[in-house]
Automatic annotation (TrEMBL):
It holds the Pfam family MotA_ExbB. It comes from the Bacteria. The chain crosses the membrane at residues 28-49, 136-161, 181-202. Belongs to the exbB/tolQ family. It comes from Sphingomonas chungangi. This is Biopolymer transport protein ExbB. It is a multi-pass membrane protein. PANTHER family: BIOPOLYMER TRANSPORT PROTEIN EXBB, PROTEIN TOLQ.
Amino acid sequence: MTTPTPAPGAASAAEQYGLFNALHQGGVISWTVFILLVGSLFISLFILLSKWWEQQKIIGQAKKVRAGFWSAPNLRDAATKLEKNSAYRQIVDDGLLAEDQHDKLKDPIDQHEWINNSIARSTASIGAKLSGGLPFLATVGSVAPFVGLFGTVVGIYRALIAIGASGSASIDKVAGPVGEALIMTALGLVTAVPAVLAYNWLLRRNKVIMEGLVAFANDVHGYMVSGGAVRPSFGLTKAAQPKVAATASGVQTTKA
């Protein structure tokens, strides 16, 4: 039993068509588009993984805050329970620093306003750090399809020029070059779709994380300006929770 031998023209056609042959035929423009798209894809994946790891660290820190931060006798002792250089530790440290600096101010300003501004500035800096890299994902998601389309247009233009020079417009002459050119459009979509999905997913997670950080910053501010009388109830032992007692006049007072 003999194996059928492929036609000589079929083997040569298979060797002529393909991605790298299309890049070779397209020249500098095709190679530039290809490198831009592939590079953007890998950078997008790197941003996705690095931001996910950064978010997971802050989520883990939030669990430690809920576990026992507010059960400490004072804010400085509570800060030692947090990891150094963590987001929550930064807010506490900046609040304590603002409290220490208030007495050194020459112009009078309310202590609660000074501390609030400092804590808000600290929270905003954390939010800016979390948002790093997201503009790149948004740019790739919106631009990559057009970059791929540009590569396709250039590829089809070169294919039509070659077809015109050969004087033949048969299907075997048109299908291969046009199919190679369309690879750039597909590559642009492959680059853009993960970038858009990663951007939306990371943005949603950032929003949830920032809501927790802002709530924590408000709790820290309230604790500091009240001298420790105001603190959230979660994470406190029953003995550490504020007690409510009734005075002779019937007005309830809170005991720390």
